[in-house]
Design goal:
The protein contains 5 helices and no strands. By secondary structure, it is mainly alpha-helical. It has one domain. It starts with 22 loop residues before the first helix and ends with a helix. This is Hemerythrin.
């Protein structure tokens, strides 16, 4: 499968015209930048957990990672809610929700949330020390969420948002604007 470019422009793919996004779609896209920075930071930290064979107890590193993941989730949740509560329903009127792009986006939201929740719960339930194997297993949930969301953001930026720009009428874009601007305050 051909990968879409991973740059910040509004290109849908090579050779196609740029699609300028309306303000609410551009706002959703801009929110990906800080979210991507946060999740890249926690993924770098998660990838290092369990790597040092000298360390016998990884609970402190997992606790520090937990704080980063919790901060990320606090930022991700409102963003996801704006997409799920405003953008997806508007698009679903045209392309449905049971299959296709909206179904994929909702599935990926859920998959990422499940992995983040599994990570947070596993750290919370740790008793005693966490050896390298257990720590790597726990950190893998954060890494799986990162992988899902990295791909997910790319799909939204390069496919879903341009599709919405071309699909939604002025009234629907105004409705989306009210939802995105109200909720992002």
């Amino acid at each position: 499968m051909e990968q879409m470019p991973h740059h910040c422009g509004h290109m849908m793919s090579e050779g196609r015209a740029q699609v300028a996004l309306c303000e609410p779609l551009a706002q959703l896209k801009r929110e990906h930048g800080p979210l991507r920075e946060q999740m890249d930071a926690f993924a770098r930290e998660a990838a290092e957990i369990g790597a040092d064979q000298e360390t016998t107890d990884w609970t402190a590193q997992l606790a520090a990672l937990k704080q980063k993941v919790e901060a990320f989730v606090r930022e991700l949740d409102p963003h996801s809610e704006r997409e799920e509560g405003a953008l997806f329903p508007l698009m679903a009127k045209y392309i449905g929700r049971q299959m296709g792009p909206i179904a994929v986006m909702e599935y990926e939201h859920e998959l990422a949330k499940q992995n983040l929740k599994k990570f947070l719960e596993a750290v919370e339930q740790l008793e005693g020390t966490a050896d390298a194997g257990r720590a790597k297993e726990i950190a893998s949930y954060a890494l799986q969420a990162h992988a899902v969301l990295t791909d997910h953001f790319m799909k939204e930026e390069n496919v879903l948002f341009p599709m919405a720009e071309n699909m939604l009428n002025a009234e629907e874009k105004a409705e989306l604007s009210r939802a995105v601007c109200r909720d992002s305050i």
